[in-house]
Amino acid sequence: MRLILILCVPVMVVFLCGCASDRRQAAKIFGNMTYYVGNEHFAEPAKLVNCEYFSPFLKLYYDNKFVYGDFNHDGLKDAAVITIENTGGNADWYMLNFLINDGKQFVHRATRELDDRAIINAIWQKNGKVFIDMYVHQEGDCMGGPSKRVRNVYEYTGLDSFGLGKDLWKDAPHFHKPKEGFVPDEATAIQIAEAVLTAAYGKERVNKEKPLEAHLGNDIWTVLGVVDCANKHPCDQLSMGIRQDSGEILSVSSKDQ
Amino acid sequence: MPTQTSVDTWLKRETPRVRKALENASSYFDIKDPLTVNTLEAIYAQESGFGIRLGIKGIKNAAGHFQLSKDTAERYHLHVSGEDDQRFGIDYASIAAARYLHDLNRMFSKKTLLSAKIATIPVDDDGERRNFIFAAYNGGEGTIAKAQYFAQQANGNPAKWDNVQAFLEKAEADNPDQVRKYVKGVSSNEIGFVEKSPADKTAKFTNIHGSKGRCSKGEWIVKDGLHVFICG
To answer: Does the ipTM surpass 0.85?
Structure first.
């Protein structure tokens, strides 16, 4: 028994120190970066310094609750981070922020609202989805006492506009949208894909899989590289999803066939 | 959100000690304020269910009997730390809440510049102004003042809550629906407390504190293990 204790204690100490060190490291990154706060009507970039941001009517805090995972399924480690927003009254809104790894750094791409004064028990990820065990308000609760225990699942589904796109382009003149959408045909889809895939994976890799092929289904163009996977496993193939109507890039990947 | 039917339940939790604290705090309202001890009861119920859910001591976020943020509590000279958090003392918390509500009432009684670009628009009607005060307690005075501005821009009446609440989304409220529900909830609670509460509604006229109780300069000392603010 004593021997087990002697062996276990150092392991526990190393484990706990490791967790504390991870948290300190995370606080350095997530507590000192820019988050976008807003909705379709407005957006305010809030640059946290030492886990806090103050402007006349907005306070934002990093809450030291986070989880790593590949939330946009591109093979890179992203993060989901909880922050607390306050606009001057006593409501403290807990928000889940998806920070996507662009290869160089984490960039805030999307936010999900949790609850005012939510009590967070645990946050974890599985298969690129974020799970949060927390107490939220239900009918009859006072503001200080959320009493409904929930286990919610949150998924990254693409970039939030945070009002930025709308504000930026609202006065743009000569706005013309083709009847069949911004990506009306196969040739346009392939041109877009070639440019984006080259930026992501390099010219040499894209040239190997040319000519790219595009198929339209459910208003989404799926563009694939051409590879012979017959004698090769695993076999990576470039792939990309583009929305026909808006041209939005839905996914970029090098997937295993 | 609580409903008016809960008023009886809350009144059972209102001990003579708590009632006295709320009555004393109501003396921080001006005679002209549309606020009374029943307003404090209504907010107290909505915020912590009469002291049932107080939260964690020392945190920056809303906590204590009236769910005041650390910033707001310290603005009204409450001491906030993990060991001694006066937001958790009913006397201190109710006085700070009363002073905060009094200040919100003043902000929406006359044009008040909140920042370089944002100012409130006066709401003359007492009944209407209560809605603005409650909304600001939950959503922040800046957000409500912005909603007033947008209502005015859209040729609405910036002194009518029904007009203004439609612009909360545009005014950057974190959750506009919650602010709307909060205003309805507190207003409904207040009506219930006016009808049923035995608290002394005239306590606000006693002004037991006079101007001396409202000092803004002074220092904190520790007395009997508690932090006490001594006016300078």
So the answer is: no
